[in-house]
Structure formats: C-alpha cells, structure tokens
Design brief:
The complex is a heterodimer of chains A (252) and B (371). Chain A has 252 residues and is an alpha/beta fold. Chain A folds into two domains: 147 residues, NADH:ubiquinone oxidoreductase-like, 20kDa subunit (Rossmann fold); 85 residues, no CATH class. Chain A contains ten helices and five strands; from the N terminus they run E-H-H-E-E-H-E-H-H-E-H-H-H-H-H. With 371 residues, chain B is of the alpha+beta class. Chain B has two domains: 33 residues, no CATH class; 317 residues, Orthogonal Bundle (Cytochrome-c3 Hydrogenase, chain B). Chain B has eleven helices and 13 strands. The chains are: A alpha/beta (252), B alpha+beta (371).
C-alpha cells in the first residue's frame, strides 16, 4: 500500500500553524537518529532544501484557513497513500478556530482595519474538513514518543494505535493530586490520553488539545463538576481553547 | 549602465520557519523589484484573546511560534502582570531567566547547525551531514537536547510551555534536576568551543549593509526579558512607547507587517543585541566574539549567526550562574497571586531568539485579555 515498505518516502507539509509539531519531529531525532534509516524524507521545507513529489506518507501540520490552500492539500491527498494529521491544528482546528466564534468581518477588521481585504481568510478548519485523513497524531504539540510509535505502526502496515481512555488514567498512574481537588479546572476526564498527563503533572489542568475520547463518560464528568461546584458551561468554556470547531459543528 | 538582467523567484524559501518567497528583478543593471513575500496565512491572535480569561493569554499566544514559544509566553505574562499591577517574586524572575536561556540555546543551535550550516557546507539539509560529519550532527543534537531538557525541567516542555503562569510557576525543578543540568551545561562548554571552531571555518559572505539595530537594554545585564528599547541610531524608549519605534504598516505582498524607525527599516535579533549590548556579555562570550572577528558595530547581516554562537556561550554561562543562585537560596513553592480586582493596559517585551517582541493588552479586564 505504501510502496517500498522497507523504506517508504515521507513528506512533511504545513498550513496555518506554529510549526511546533514539525519541530517536535526534528527533536525526536535526538533520541531516534535511526528514524532516518527507516524512512526517506523527500520533502520537509522547514528542515531541508531538496523537494521530492513521490512521497507515500504525508504528515500535514496546520489548519485550513483560506480557500487558496485547499488545492495544495488536495494535491497532497492525491499523491499520498497515507495522510496523517500532525497535531491539534490539523486534527481539530485547534487554537486557530477560537476566532470562528466571532463574526469573520469583525475579526478581520480588528486586526487589519481598513486593509482587511488584503489578506485572504475564512474560518479555520481541521484538514479532515477538506480531505480524507488516514491517521491522527493528536496534541499541541504532538508527543515525541507517540510520533515515533505512529511511524513504527505505519511501517508495519498497521493502523496507529491511540489510547481510547481519558487523561485521568495517566494522571492517576503518575500519582498526581487531582487538579479539581487543588481548586483548578481540568478536562482530563473526557480528553484522550497519550500525553502522559503532562499538563496536570506540571500543575495545570488539561486544556483538551488531544480531543475528546470516543465515548466520554458524561455521568462521571457531571459528578465531578457537581462535587466541585462547577457547571457544564464552565467545562465547555474551557474546551473552546482547542474545541471551538467541534462545539460549533455540534451546535449547527 | 551595465546590461545585467536578473530574474530570481524563490517560491518558498526552505530551512526557515514559515512560508516566504523572494523576488528579485533587475533590468540593464537597474533594480526593479526586490521583495520578501511572507505568504503565511494571517492568524488573528489579537482577536482570539478577546473575552477570554487573562490566565489563558500566555498559553494561547505561545502558539504563535513553535520555536520561540517560551519567549511569547514570557512577553505575554509580563504584559498581563503589567496590566494587573503584579510584580513577580525574585524566585520567579530567576526561574524565568533560566527558562529563557533554554529557549535561546534551543533556537540558536537549530538555526546555526540545521538551518544555516548546510548552506555554507554545500548540502541541502542536516541529513547528509549525518553521513559526512556525524560528530557535528551529534553535537548539535546534544546541545539541542540539553536546551529542551532545561525548558522541560522549568516549564514542562519548550513547545508549548505549561508551568509558566501569571505571577509565577505551577511546577518547580528539584535541586537534583538543576544540578544535573548544571553538569551538562559545564560539559557544553567543550561543545561550544567546537562550535566556535566550526563557525570560524564557515565561508561567511563578505557583505556589509549599514542599518539601524534595535534591542532591549538593561543597565545591569545582557537583556532578554524587560528593559529599555534602545537603538544604535540614538534613542531610548520605555516599552510602553514601543509604537514610536515599530511604526507598523501593512503591505499587500506580505501578511507580515513592516516596521521602520529612523530609516527605511531596522534589524533585530542576535546581531542587533550584540551591537547594542556587547559590553554586558559574559567574558567567555566576549572572547568567542573576538575569536570570530565580531566587533561592534558589525554591519554584516550574515554574521547574525556568529552573534548567535556568542549568545549561546553567554546563555550557558548565565544559566550556570542562575542555577548556582537558585540552589543556594533554595526553591520554594509560591502561591500564584489572586486577581487584584482591576486591570488597565499592559505592556511586555522580551528579546526572543530572532528579535525584540512586544505584547500589548489594552484591557486585561477580569475576564477578557484583549490585545
């Protein structure tokens, strides 16, 4: 399916993003230089000049936030046997979609004033709103080890495994004091694990960058909210940082 | 008049963060067009922050840039603290400085070894160097890992920081972690000696262009966080007057705004900082500058990369000194300050790896940050 299974050609692309996920890919080389023996990178603008167009796996970072970027993403989809959404912007829309909740004209004029028409834009979307996506590496940014794990799975011709349990599970394993107990707010009960509960471990609540788990336990979440005098509205407000696109889709 | 015709169009400059095109046209020896087009999509962060809790501002704005995420978070926190009238503790100031050195090291080693060196060594990326000069690549990865681990110990991760909060931190490094990092920073001196030796052999283009250099300056240290906006053309401004320096204007060919102060443009970044603050560099960094032939006022923009080598040495030495200070005084958890009840306009500024950065929140309010 992906050509030379022994050493497939891979390429990295980015749209509206901070490019931090591609940097995390570069950082994964610190502990996995051998990655360069396992795949042939034919395109990675942020890190190399050479540019090959015969890739089998495309890693795409960033949201789609203007019409003129769609054709480029579709070309990538036509070429690649496997398209992987790299990070929250590509996977969810993420931070970029926060502005979707405000009127587009107002957003444009707030930043660019009477020159707003000079800069093409529309509400930010995940790449799956434009093309079919075969695999996802969640997170803002992605987790280095999970990236390596996904590459390994793809090389073996398997669907990359993602945890389907919540961040709470990893947080409990780390024996962290619950963020709610400390008076904070956390989306850990409903967000997909795989990050090692890094935010609660560093004293902050989960912000939801990895997206909701497939079947969140709503009753349990409600119990937690009631116990700490919080509301579903509080939870949804917190989830707008990364989940504005999902909330607006669900509401429309 | 010469009959030289030039027609250069680079569609997407490679080995840089972000999308840029270069257009140069000359006809009969006369330059007709010379443009850097930043073709990134507009992000609208200013609008994103409106109406959101001030505690989220630094987490959202760090997502402006994966390379200088700590810098954006720091400038954002300084702007919010300025708006709320919160003064960070001495411990917070020390931890932030140490964290910032991690980012300077991370970004500079990436730029020097992975983005610039391949050009000067005649290869398309760092990947062929793994075969040709593995010790060079391993050295770069070793320094980069140290920089990343330093940030991870302080704020959870370099991209994107977690534990940095308004008025303090939500997580602290242990003394053992700091001492382990200290030992690696001491070891990195040898890697920096090798970096200076490498930088001396690189064929830097001999090109000079006089311009204005602008950087933050402090009286007591080489400035990365806070300071006075200082220009080599003469002039010092408080951060709250940053607009007198930036004078931003929009152009049709680029989503990046243009700025100008006393000339058509000015330069920021490592070379600007070196030109403004060279007297405050650590003696080891000054020695490296001398070895690299870097003297103020240096007007060769290619030597910005050499100035980054010098800054890396400064950051390593200052990080060692900061760790000594933190270990000597002991790190204690400090509660984050409560919302003081009112907020005004806030200004914050930092020297992120690639230059001066301002965050300005007109109304930090009790809920909305605004920009």
């Amino acid at each position: 399916m992906i050509g030379d299974l022994m050493k497939p050609k891979v390429a990295f692309f980015d749209f509206t993003s901070c490019e931090g996920c591609q940097l995390t890919v570069v950082d994964s080389l610190q502990t996995h230089v051998d990655l360069l023996d396992a795949v042939e990178i034919v395109q990675f603008r942020e890190a190399m000049t050479e540019k090959g167009e015969d890739y089998a796996i495309a890693f795409v970072e960033g949201s789609i936030s203007r019409a003129s970027d769609e054709a480029r993403l579709r070309r990538i989809r036509e070429q690649a046997a496997i398209v992987v959404a790299l990070g929250a912007c590509a996977h969810l829309g993420g931070i970029n979609a926060i502005r979707n909740a405000q009127p587009l004209d107002d957003v444009r004029k707030y930043v660019y004033g009477d020159k707003a028409d000079w800069y093409e834009t529309y509400p930010a979307r995940p790449i799956s709103a434009v093309v079919k996506v075969d695999a996802v590496i969640p997170g803002c940014p992605i987790d280095r080890d999970e990236f390596i794990g996904v590459v390994k799975a793809l090389l073996l011709g398997k669907k990359p495994p993602l945890p389907d349990y919540p961040v709470c599970v990893e947080c409990k394993r780390k024996e962290n004091v619950c963020v709610f107990h400390k008076g904070g707010f956390c989306l850990g009960p409903v967000i997909r694990a795989g990050c090692g509960a890094i935010c609660p471990t560093c004293g902050d609540g989960c912000e939801g960058c990895r997206g909701l788990i497939p079947n969140p336990n709503q009753d349990s979440m409600s119990d937690v909210l009631v116990k700490y005098g919080l509301t579903v509205a509080d939870m949804l407000a917190r989830w707008t940082m990364f989940g504005t696109y999902q909330q607006m889709e669900a509401g429309s | 008049m010469s009959n030289i015709n030039i027609n250069i169009e680079v569609h997407h400059v490679t080995r840089v963060e972000g999308h840029g095109n270069i257009v140069v046209n000359a006809k009969n020896g006369v330059l007709e067009e010379c443009r850097l087009e930043i073709v990134e999509t507009p992000r609208f962060f200013e609008a994103m922050l409106r109406g959101r809790p001030y505690t989220e501002s630094s987490h959202i704005t760090s997502r402006i840039c994966g390379i200088c995420a700590v810098g954006h978070a720091t400038a954002s926190l300084r702007a919010t603290e300025n708006a709320l009238g919160i003064e960070p503790s001495e411990q917070t100031v020390l931890l932030r400085k140490l964290n910032f050195h991690g980012e300077i090291l991370d970004s500079h080693v990436l730029h020097i070894y992975m983005l610039v060196a391949p050009d000067l060594l005649g290869v398309g990326s760092v990947i062929p160097l793994v075969q040709i000069a593995p010790e060079v690549v391993l050295r770069a990865l070793r320094i980069k890992k140290l920089a990343g681990d330093l940030c991870a110990a302080l704020c959870g991760r370099h991209t994107h920081p977690i534990a940095m909060a308004v008025g303090g931190f939500t997580h602290y490094p242990t003394t053992d972690e700091l001492l382990a990092l200290r030992a690696r920073l001491v070891d990195a001196r040898a890697d920096m000696d090798a970096t200076v030796a490498l930088a001396k052999t690189l064929p830097w283009p001999a090109f000079t262009r006089e311009t204005e250099y602008i950087a933050l300056r402090k009286e007591d240290e080489y400035a990365f966080i806070d300071g006075t906006v200082t220009t080599t053309d003469g002039g010092r401004y408080p951060i709250s007057d940053y607009r007198k320096v930036t004078n931003e204007r929009l152009v049709t060919h680029s989503t990046a705004k243009h700025t100008a102060h006393k000339r058509e443009s000015y330069m920021v970044g490592a070379l600007a900082r070196f030109n403004v603050n060279h007297d405050q560099l650590h003696p080891r960094a000054k020695a490296a500058a001398a070895e690299l032939g870097l003297t103020p006022l240096c007007t060769n923009p290619f030597l910005n990369t050499a100035a980054q080598v010098v800054e890396m040495i400064h950051s390593i030495e200052d990080a060692i000194q900061l760790i000594d200070q933190l270990v000597a005084r002991g790190i204690r958890p400090e509660p984050l300050p409560a919302f003081p009840g009112k907020a005004g306009e806030g200004f914050g500024a930092c020297e992120v790896p690639r230059g001066i950065l301002f965050h300005n929140y007109p109304d930090a309010g009790d809920a909305g940050a605004g920009v």
